């Protein structure tokens, strides 16, 4: 379950401040009252939910199904020797020969 959906059980010694317009403050206060939450709880839950959404998107890559299938097929295929890469590795002197 996400943190945003729970009451945070954390060390609450840190403080986060933000400057907003009176209009935005009024809207947030109305929404908090409608949600039966404190303004702090409402803002914290909304910010945590948004942060978790961003992090989920950052950790996931979506690709078309046919592209995904090509990637899987290439991983399953036997390795192909790349001569230019092999030469460069030998020239660098930092290679391990596969037996």
UniProtKB/TrEMBL annotation:
Listed SUPFAM superfamilies: Ribbon-helix-helix
Keyword Methyltransferase: no
Lineage: superkingdom: Bacteria
Assigned keywords, A-Z: Toxin-antitoxin system
Entry's transmembrane regions: none
UniProt KW ATP-binding keyword: no
Gene3D superfamilies per the UniProt record, alphabetical: Single helix bin
Family of this protein: Belongs to the TacA antitoxin family.
Name of the featured protein: DUF1778 domain-containing protein
